[in-house]
Amino acid sequence: MRHSESHRTERIGWLRAAVLGANDGIVSTASLVIGVAAANADRGEIMIAGLAGLVAGAMSMAAGEYVSVYSQADTEKADLERERKELEVDDEGERMELAGIYVQRGLSPQLAREVADQLMAHDALAAHARDELGISEELRARPVQAAVFSAVSFAVGAALPLSLAAFTDGAAVVPAVAVGSLFFLAVLGAIAARAGGASPLKGAIRVTFWGAIAMIVTALVGKLFGTAVA
User: 220 lies in a domain?
Assistant: First the structure.
């Protein structure tokens, strides 16, 4: 009977991109809206600024994540190609190297050599990629996936404070967006922490704290420049 398990490490690629995107979307857009509103802008100006921030942020997140993760993928590809050549040139040396890794992990030298021989007979490159380089199929860099998750999650996150601004009038915009966005951040932090196996409470507090700092700073800047212009 086959025993199957689902591990959280399988989610790490898309979870990281999605959480980072949504968090940035909420924080940056809420901060932008609060800063513009604090500068005594009207609803139209606030919405235009917020929409511009949403589009620009989503595109920036997608591009940045794609370039970053693609660089990681290039590094992995180069390491695998070098390992492939080493296997062709020095098969025995690579077997000894793999066996040495297993000895360090607690196997006896004889058993480590047997394990290395069997794994290399099955798929030598995969064995070295996983145990020597730390590259596995679950954790391999996927640039397109990371870019899409980042852009979509940023847009969804940004839409939350923007929707609050759209349905709030006058002086109520700043407190409504601030309180609502902090609530969204707390929920996001708790969900992300739980999905990753960490404490939801700690995750919520951590994300909310830094989000509040960002909003306070931008509100002060908006208030300062708004007063100076007036």
Answer: yes
